Amino acid sequence: MAKKVCVLVGGSWGTALAMVLADNGHDVRLWARSEEQVNEINKTRENSRFLPGVKLPDGIRATTSMEEAVKDAEAVIIVAPSKVMREVARMLKPFWREDMLCIHATKGLEIDTLKRMSTIIAEELECDESKIGVICGPSHAEEVARRRPTTIVVASSKEKEAELAQNLLMNAYFRVYTNRDVLGAELAGAFKNIIALGAGMSDGLEYGDNAKAALLTRGLAEITRVGTVMGANPLTFSGLAGVGDLVVTATSRHSRNWRAGYLLGQGKPLQEVLDSMGMVVEGIRTIEAAHMILQKYKVQMPIAEQLYHVLFEGLDPRTAVEALMGRGPKTEMEMISQETWEQWHT
């Protein structure tokens, strides 16, 4: 059954999700700040800045009016960069209704507070956090927009809400699973960007496949360790939100985080890299958040820690690699604490 769905905002991932919804027969309102972008979408059926060469379905109508976008909508999907999520949620508040399905698809943390996106949205909408779900998993917007087979997960603490989102989005090329672990899904989506940036840096340094495979494997261990300490289900990190998203983000040239890391590995200064990207690189912000998390929770995040030294303290990337390789002997099974292991196996 066709529904009116609002998507905020009109970047690459927001536009791709709008296309999925329109392909499913829904009436889609895509909100963006730029009048120029909105006019282009409505007149030419293209979002050339974010998805050049992709023809948008007629079921998508763009607007700069939040009220017009949200009015009568049965569901809203928020795809704002993490640094403006609070602002966008605040703009949504006057038009928000308790009966709306609300999901976000942003992979990051708020640096100042270390809060997840669902927490921020709930605070600004003044609703229970259980009403906010999250879309995550291996999903490059460029491939979704070209209708290539993609599988994602919708996480919500409320099974009914997750199933509603699943039914909205699922089709022949876009398969959707559900998960009840919102915390794990959000942490996995945020932290994998750190490892992806490191993988790009490894490629920029021409360290080869052995190094990158080790980085991804130990990176997954690092993500799982910190995620379980923060209260997530460790199984989430071996699913689509965890290892699935990690692999696609750390191995593809579509990935902004990989591309940023690659340029850094080639010796480009951080600001030059950011200026050249043209879009938000969430991994760089998440490394700042991870630096505070490892201090708060007293958990080991050696990869994130070395990347922080490279990005914000001027450490040479090769020196960072030497520091990682020179760490004391460990057992591979030190992914999670014995206490956490026992908790999930009793």
From TrEMBL:
It is found in: Cytoplasm. InterPro entries: 6-PGluconate_DH-like_C_sf, 6PGD_dom2, G3P_DH_NAD-dep, G3P_DH_NAD-dep_C, G3P_DH_NAD-dep_N, NAD(P)-bd_dom_sf. The keyword Lyase does not apply. The keyword Zinc-finger does not apply. It comes from the Bacteria. Residues 181-322 form the Glycerol-3-phosphate dehydrogenase NAD-dependent C-terminal domain. Its EC number is 1.1.1.94. The active site is at residue 192. Gene3D superfamilies: N-(1-d-carboxylethyl)-l-norvaline Dehydrogenase, domain 2, NAD(P)-binding Rossmann-like Domain. NADPH binds at residues 12-13, 33, 107, 141, 256, 280, 282. Residues 1-18 form the signal peptide. Pfam families: NAD_Gly3P_dh_C, NAD_Gly3P_dh_N. Sn-glycerol 3-phosphate binds at residues 107, 137, 139, 192, 245, 255-257. It catalyses: sn-glycerol 3-phosphate + NAD(+) = dihydroxyacetone phosphate + NADH + H(+); sn-glycerol 3-phosphate + NADP(+) = dihydroxyacetone phosphate + NADPH + H(+). Pathway: Membrane lipid metabolism; glycerophospholipid metabolism. Its main location: cytoplasm. Residues 4-161 form the Glycerol-3-phosphate dehydrogenase NAD-dependent N-terminal domain. Keywords: Cytoplasm, Lipid biosynthesis, Lipid metabolism, NAD, NADP, Nucleotide-binding, Oxidoreductase, Phospholipid biosynthesis, Phospholipid metabolism, Signal. Belongs to the NAD-dependent glycerol-3-phosphate dehydrogenase family. HAMAP family: NAD_Glyc3P_dehydrog. Catalyzes the reduction of the glycolytic intermediate dihydroxyacetone phosphate (DHAP) to sn-glycerol 3-phosphate (G3P), the key precursor for phospholipid synthesis. This is Glycerol-3-phosphate dehydrogenase [NAD(P)+]. The lineage of its organism: Bacteria, Bacillati, Bacillota, Bacilli, Bacillales. The gene is gpsA.
